[in-house]
Amino acid sequence: MLNIGARSIVNTSRVRAIQATRSYATKEAAPVTLKNHKYTVHAIAAGQGRKGEVGSLDETPFSLHLAMPKVLGGKGDGTNPEQLFAMGYASCFLGALQMMAGKMGKKDAARNAVIHTTVHLGEAEGLGGFGLAVDIKVEGVEDEELIKAGHEACPYSRALVHGAVVNVSKA
């Protein structure tokens, strides 16, 4: 869904991350493909895009009113896609970090982990239009090997670092 030239955007983000902090980026690889589908979620967006409605059509229906952020000229009276992405990424990364801590016999090392994600929306260099960059800070974990393993196991990280298969068609 959000493979907006992910490789170029992530590479731009990598440069900033390398300059600011330690980079946990992995080697370039082919897009992630799935052997099977363990869980599938269905969502819908309607209205005026960033000023419309979004919802999940699954066993626990959920909907939100979207609004353009004030800094982009909107009223800021609702949620925006970048907020949703940041929250999803933070929770996914935390789950991957905790899973890897268990697999590595370091469960206690991730017990107090808190994940801070910052999602940046800006002009995509060389692509035109907009793109995303993400900064992740892991609080409460000192083990860099564990943080790297969490990043490598996180589906959001994998999609952004390696790319994901995105199929677009008429409904």
Number of helices: 4
Number of strand elements? 5
| Fraction in helix | 25-40%
Amino-to-carboxy terminus distance: 15 Å
Order of helices and strands: HEEEHEEHH
Structural class: alpha+beta
Widest sheet, order of strands: 1-2-3
Q: Please, what is the average pLDDT? A: 86
Largest sheet: 3 strands, antiparallel
> Unreliable segments (pLDDT under 50, ≥5 consecutive)?
1-23
Key structural traits:
two-stranded antiparallel ribbon; alpha+beta; 5 strands; 171 residues
Structure characterization notes:
With 171 residues, the chain is an alpha+beta fold. 21% of the residues are buried. The strands form 2 sheets. The chain has a 3-stranded antiparallel beta sheet with strand order 1-2-3, with no helix packed on it. Helix 1 packs across helix 4 and helix 2 packs across helix 3.
Task: Compile the SSE list and pairings.
Layout: H1 6-20, E1 43-46, E2 53-56, E3 62-65, H2 81-103, E4 114-123, E5 130-139, H3 144-153, H4 155-162
Antiparallel strand pairs: 1-2, 2-3, 4-5
Helix pairs in contact: 1-4, 2-3
Q: How would you summarize what this structure contains?
A:
The protein is of the alpha+beta class and 171 residues long. The chain has helices at 6-20, 81-103, 144-153, 155-162; strands at residues 43-46, 53-56, 62-65, 114-123, 130-139. Mean pLDDT is 86; it is low at 1-23.
